[in-house]
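Consider the tokenized backbone below.
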């Protein structure tokens, strides 16, 4: 492979063309995301560029001038990054690429800028120079490695969702990456033949085919284990490893919960059936998989959990609905549909069957689906809901509610740990990990107030995009809980937390302490619908644990009939705080890039006329809207402007959202019908 053939490949499918209606491929909220039919050339380029990024990452982790490189023993150093081909919550016509760094996190701005520059570069001479330079640097690195005993084994992990074009786009990406690898390694083999038969740098592409986005991040992170993780987390970097890890972590926590609640339990006996209140009604969680990739993953998780021979009363039965065969992806189902429209998903195959039975008996639609959740097309977001009638949600719980549930339980635990420590004879004061919550402007005002005023925890508001929340969480807290209101989020833990968790474990009789168990159940790389689902289920159980040791879970009883302090979705929804009514709308405009916002996207800076009009609309004296808050921002994943409004009443929230939409339409060249 020579440079000319790569250039030919690159320009065969010229990514920029006036016919596709794009002037520029921008790196959006979660990577490049466009209509799938304009992405062919982009994928080839991202394939090549991702190998360059991988080599740059390797350079940062393994410096040939470091002492490691000069030792005489042979060391093979491995490093992995990843790419997921998905457009997540978007409809089937879109596709996209999300890149993962070695720690499983998303790209940082400098990497995004590098990618954006080169996917848009239409000058073939510039490209030629880049490729030649990269080859020279690669040769030099390899020569330095030849003089040491260091070998590098680099992997690019690739996954894709169930979209009809994902396979094709994945092939193009692999083609770009493999051609560039061949170009680099060819020089290496000829150069090294006189010194060594083996390659000093090996670069491979691992195509994992259809995966959830969090599985891909898991595989990347755990392929680089020693770099980022505590000793108590050792999952296998495979799909199976992912399923086993989180199924086991969930069961261990549920069993520990029961053991802790049963004073007479045999703590060494993992199967604590005998000690469980066997009258406990079995809980079923129905999962709307958005007709996407999460369906199979939930099924696998369900099997892994059921195969552990644990008492069914201790765990929740997962019931996956809406698989890829049941309807179009994210269409009238999935977390985005439920969150934006406050409507239950359609396509419930099993439920519809059940419902028909119910309908026959009761014209009012007497449903009983108290415990449900919806994930999105690549299974990285989740919202919970209960459904008691055909077209309405009885409860709705979003990312804000999940974050606060986690914070609530952790705060209680930490406070107990502190009290126990103060009461013990231990003269060394225990350092309690710091905790904070990261939200975006979409967080419900009631949620932000609750965190600040009731939990008295710090809140940071960032731009939309989990990449922003993730970094803020890592940089500011030992326990950084970050969730977007749309259900996208996770918890990140610092090294201090890990040491704290290990010390707590040493002081307890249980196999794992709560703190270690919690860390094992959370995907530290990225928001993960399935981990978050198991985590919420466990937390609700933990809040429902009574003195008899029965862990009553969310769907099993209503709060009024509960004999213990069981937490149903209704409890979760009402016992902490009540959401302010809110509404999200989308407005189509000619060019959404004319809209610029402040750093956390709560204020519109351009066009200049927009913000004063929004302020006026929010002013109670103007429209009589109490507690009104609204903002607008251009989406980074769809060709629309998003409008958010909240107010004291549902009517006012809807009214404010409508006014804000009209402002966007009028001031930003709206297209189509005026809202
Ligand atoms: C992506 C991002 C999220 C973001 C969402 C919507 O989610 O990862 O952080 O909230 O897009 O972004 P925007 O409002 O800019 O369209 P996903 O699940 O689609 O990858």
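A designed sequence for it:
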């Amino acid at each position: 492979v020579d440079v000319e053939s790569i250039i030919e490949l690159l320009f065969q499918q010229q990514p920029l063309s006036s016919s596709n209606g794009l002037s520029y491929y921008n790196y959006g909220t979660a990577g490049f995301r466009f209509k799938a039919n304009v992405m062919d050339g982009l994928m080839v380029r991202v394939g090549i560029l991702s190998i360059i990024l991988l080599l740059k990452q390797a350079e940062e982790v393994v410096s040939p001038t470091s002492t490691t490189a000069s030792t005489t023993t042979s060391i093979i150093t491995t490093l992995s990054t990843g790419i997921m081909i998905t457009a997540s919550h978007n409809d089937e016509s879109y596709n996209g690429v999300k890149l993962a760094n070695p720690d499983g996190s998303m790209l940082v701005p400098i990497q995004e800028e590098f990618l954006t520059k080169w996917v848009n570069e239409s000058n073939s001479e510039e490209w030629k120079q880049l490729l030649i330079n990269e080859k020279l640097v690669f040769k030099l690195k390899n020569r330095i490695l030849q003089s040491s005993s260091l070998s590098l084994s680099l992997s690019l992990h690739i996954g894709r969702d169930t979209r009809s074009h994902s396979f094709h786009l994945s092939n193009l990406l692999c083609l770009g990456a493999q051609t560039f690898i061949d170009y680099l390694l060819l020089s290496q083999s000829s150069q090294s033949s006189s010194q060594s038969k083996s390659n000093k740098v090996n670069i491979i592409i691992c195509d994992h085919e259809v995966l959830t986005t969090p599985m891909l991040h898991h595989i990347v992170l755990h392929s680089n284990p020693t770099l980022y993780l505590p000793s108590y987390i050792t999952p296998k970097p495979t799909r199976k490893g992912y399923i086993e890890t989180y199924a086991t972590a969930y069961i261990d926590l549920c069993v520990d919960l029961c053991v802790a609640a049963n004073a007479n339990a045999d703590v060494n006996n993992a199967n604590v059936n005998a000690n469980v209140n066997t009258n406990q009604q079995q809980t079923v969680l129905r999962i709307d998989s958005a007709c996407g990739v999460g369906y199979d993953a939930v099924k696998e998780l369900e099997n892994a959990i059921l195969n552990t021979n644990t008492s069914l009363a201790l765990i929740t039965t997962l019931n996956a609905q809406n698989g890829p065969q049941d309807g179009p992806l994210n269409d009238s189902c999935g977390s985005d549909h439920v969150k934006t429209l406050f409507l239950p998903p359609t396509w419930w195959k099993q439920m519809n069957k059940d419902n028909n039975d119910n309908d026959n008996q009761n014209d009012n639609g007497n449903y009983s689906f108290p415990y449900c959740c919806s994930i999105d097309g690549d299974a990285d977001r989740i919202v919970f809901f209960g459904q008691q009638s055909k077209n309405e949600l009885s409860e709705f719980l979003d990312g804000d509610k999940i974050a606060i549930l986690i914070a609530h339980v952790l705060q209680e635990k930490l406070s107990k740990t502190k009290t126990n420590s103060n009461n013990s004879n231990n003269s060394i004061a225990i350092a309690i990990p710091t905790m904070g919550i990261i939200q975006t402007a979409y967080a419900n005002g009631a949620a932000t107030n609750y965190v600040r005023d009731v939990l008295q925890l710090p809140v940071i508001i960032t731009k939309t995009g989990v990449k922003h929340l993730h970094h803020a969480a890592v940089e500011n807290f030992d326990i950084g809980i970050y969730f977007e209101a749309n259900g996208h989020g996770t918890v990140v833990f610092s090294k201090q937390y890990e040491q704290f968790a290990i010390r707590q474990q040493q002081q307890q009789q249980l196999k794992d302490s709560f703190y270690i168990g919690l860390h094992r159940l959370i995907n530290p790389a990225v928001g993960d619908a399935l981990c978050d689902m198991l985590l919420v289920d466990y937390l609700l159980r933990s809040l429902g644990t009574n003195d008899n040791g029965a862990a009553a879970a969310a769907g099993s009883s209503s709060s009024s009939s509960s004999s213990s302090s069981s937490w149903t979705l209704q409890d979760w929804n009402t016992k902490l705080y009540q959401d302010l009514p809110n509404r999200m709308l989308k407005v189509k405009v000619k060019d959404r890039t004319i809209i610029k916002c402040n750093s956390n996207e709560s204020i519109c800076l351009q066009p200049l006329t927009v913000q004063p009009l929004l302020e006026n609309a929010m002013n109670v004296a103007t429209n009589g809207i109490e507690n009104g808050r609204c903002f607008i921002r251009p989406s980074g994943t769809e060709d629309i402007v998003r409008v958010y409004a909240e107010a004291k009443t549902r009517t006012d929230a809807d009214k404010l959202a409508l006014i804000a939409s009209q402002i966007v339409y009028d001031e930003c060249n709206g297209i189509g019908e005026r809202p």
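Residues 150 and 557 are 60 Å apart (CA to CA).
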